[in-house]
Amino acid sequence: MSKQNPNKIQSKHAALSATRCEELLSILSDRFDKNMSRHKGLAWVKIQTKLKGNNIKLWSLNELEITGGEPDVIGYDENTDEYIFCDCSAESPKGRRSICYDQEGLDSRKEFKPENNAINMAAAMGVEILGEEEYRELQQLGSFDTKTSSWLKTPDDIRQLGGAIFADFRYGHVFVYHNGAQSYYGGRAFRGALRV
To answer: In whole angstroms, what is the distance from residue 1 CA to residue 43 CA?
Structure first.
């Protein structure tokens, strides 16, 4: 399956074919079964029931999948009766790398502008970028970003001063750092979360 180029993401309401929906559900089911430690006590049949016929959520999960995120269920919110999917690829998703943090950061670059930015891509995909707390919770389920890094949802006070935060996992620890929001690197993307 080909990975999607960031500038190809256009509409979060595009419809998937019935064939692709079934293929995606099969991929997600297989991944769910192979990684039970991420979602102890949850049953795929209940999650699949919520997904079937929900074209918008399936489209968003497909965007996570085809850009290399390998989405999987990482939790359940009893208060809202929602399952939480998150990018669980070992490294930051390949189809979303080399992007700056947001549109303002992108606009501030005078040269060598990347094709897109994390905030706009996430919005177009219909997902949320992980914040620091969510990223740390994800790292409790495995070791992610041991060679790459991921942009994190940045607090307003940091962003207003021109910065943005990102994180990775090195030496057995999660490290959170900062960069100018206009910066981008070949090994940095973002991880998305979706509630279903």
So the answer is: 27
